[in-house]
Amino acid sequence: MAHSIEILLDSDTDSAIRDQWTALEHAGLPSAGRVRAHTNRPHCTLLAGTAISAAADAVLATTAQRLPFALRVGGAVVFPAGRKFTLARAVVPSTELLSTHATMFRSAGDHVDELAAHCRPGQWSPHVTLGLRLTADQLKAAMDLLTWETLVGRASALRRWDGDAKADVVVAGRAC
């Protein structure tokens, strides 16, 4: 199972993404909200791999002091996954976001086993996932169903998520 280090969203932005998850579910479409782990929440993944050492938590604590900062969640982005697709919302790569990602990569990357290539600087596409494993027809239906106005929120916390244990360590930013 995947492990990750992620940025969590402020409550209003989190709620707006959850509303989109719910809309997909009500339409019978695959939704990231269907994951029933109590730790499931909208997020922007910074690093992912097969395991992340708890030693990364010290980096989380230090880096979280940069938060909160403005976070803009933009339009749709689609990632192919074989014959299916992942539907997400792009996160605008602000200076603060790119700097936070670079810091996490540089300082915590050695604590991530089998770091995913798409998490490396220059290959990373910041996003918030809405739906997983959609067929082409489901993707079209989802695109037509959802609205795509830009959400202007805040990056509020960092977390290390353990996909095997379905457990997380959350480190709030300075104003949280």
What value does the Rg take, in angstroms?
15 Å
Helix content: 25-40%
Given this structure, which CATH class is correct? Alpha Beta
Strand content: 35-45%
CATH-level-2 architecture: Alpha-Beta Complex
What overall geometry do the principal axes of the alpha carbons give?
globular
By CATH, the superfamily comes out as Cyclic phosphodiesterase
* CATH topology assignment: Cyclic Phosphodiesterase, Chain: A
What structural class do you assign from the helix and strand content? Answer: alpha+beta
Number of strands: 9
Mean pLDDT: 93
Q: Major beta sheet, specifics?
A: 7 strands, antiparallel
In short:
Helix content is 27%, strand content 37%.
Description:
It is a single chain. The protein has 176 residues and is α+β, with helices and mostly antiparallel strands. Strands 1, 2, 4, 5, 7, 8 and 9 form a seven-stranded antiparallel β-sheet that branches. The chain has a two-stranded antiparallel sheet with strand order 3-6. The relative contact order is 0.29. The chain contains four helices and nine strands. The protein has one domain: Cyclic phosphodiesterase (Cyclic Phosphodiesterase, Chain: A, Alpha-Beta Complex). Strand 4 and strand 5 (84-91) form a beta hairpin. The chain has helices at 11-26, 56-63, 95-108, 136-145, and strands at residues 3-9, 43-49, 51-52, 69-81, 84-91, 112-113, 127-134, 151-162, 167-172. Helix content is 27%, strand content 37%. Helix 2 (56-63) runs antiparallel to helix 3 (95-108).
